[in-house]
From TrEMBL:
Keyword Thylakoid among record annotations: no
Keyword GTP-binding on entry: no
Database matches in NCBIfam families: PRK07567.1 (NF005743)
InterPro entries: ChyE-like, Class_I_gatase-like, GATASE
Native organism: Nocardioides astragali
Protein name: Glutamine amidotransferase
Protein origin, superkingdom: Bacteria
Keywords recorded for this protein, A-Z: Glutamine amidotransferase
Domain Glutamine amidotransferase intervals: 49-192
């Protein structure tokens, strides 16, 4: 099998490793079948899509809607690399699944808009599939409504031209969409479990996702949530796109 390419942007080694391990487990792959590149550590370089089965992009603290003067050199480099890759995969209609940060990477293309209108606090919320989501080859394995962990400052306010809306929450109209037949983005995190989201709450306490006094209550609510379905998207992505 040709491996999948996993792209990360998290500077914290423990959180970055936990994210990769969770995606690896959810995909049901070995480490040699899910090759990781950490974009916060250096440039991506040229990607030959023929070498890969598909591309998976993890989440992270970068926001494309941040003012340019506050973006670090690492963020600007990652954004440039990911925009170029996004154009490449769209041109080829190549299998791509971007979780959380994938919304920022794909959502601003083809006339789309990503801004701070529909941000949501850290926690678990019910996500509901659209009619197109229920019929989609990837999202069709999901129940019509399921709980998912999320937490984001920015979201898609206007879909890219030609995008197909797949899922929403009550407070965020675009939680997943598809471009072409094989390029996907989700606002929620398919890889997260209760332990991992609590670790991220601790890791990103200074990033403005919540007020300091809210930390323990957010973690308690995350532990109580029943989030079991989103990880199925990872295994289904591999099932659909693994190739020799």
């Amino acid at each position: 099998m040709r491996p999948f390419l996993f792209l990360g942007t998290r500077a914290e080694d423990d959180v970055a490793q936990q994210e990769y391990d969770a995606v690896l487990a959810g995909c049901g792959l070995r480490p040699d079948e899910l090759v990781r590149v950490r974009l916060e550590q250096g440039p991506l370089g040229e990607v030959d899509l023929d070498e890969w089965s598909g591309v998976i992009l993890g989440g992270g603290p970068f926001n494309v809607s941040d003012p340019d003067d506050v973006k670090s050199a690492a963020q600007r480099s990652a954004e440039a690399d990911l925009r170029a890759l996004a154009e490449q995969v769209l041109e080829a209609d190549f299998p791509f699944l971007g979780a959380c940060y994938g919304i920022g990477v794909l959502g601003g293309l083809r006339g789309g808009t990503v801004d701070r209108t529909f941000g949501e606090p850290i926690g678990a919320l019910p996500v509901r599939l659209s009619e197109e989501g229920r019929q989609d080859p990837l999202f069709g394995v999901m129940p019509e409504e399921f709980a998912a962990y999320l937490g984001h400052k920015e979201a898609v306010a206007r879909l890219p031209e030609g995008a197909v809306l797949l899922a929403s929450t009550v407070t965020c109209p675009v939680h997943a969409f598809r471009l072409g037949q094989n390029v996907y983005a989700t606002q929620f995190h398919p890889e997260l479990d209760a332990v991992a989201i609590c670790d991220r709450i601790d890791a990103y306490g200074s990033h403005g996702y919540y007020l300091p006094h809210e930390r323990e209550s957010l973690k308690a609510a995350a532990r109580e949530a029943m989030v079991t379905e989103p990880v199925r998207l990872l295994g289904r992505f591999v099932e659909l796109y693994a190739r020799t």
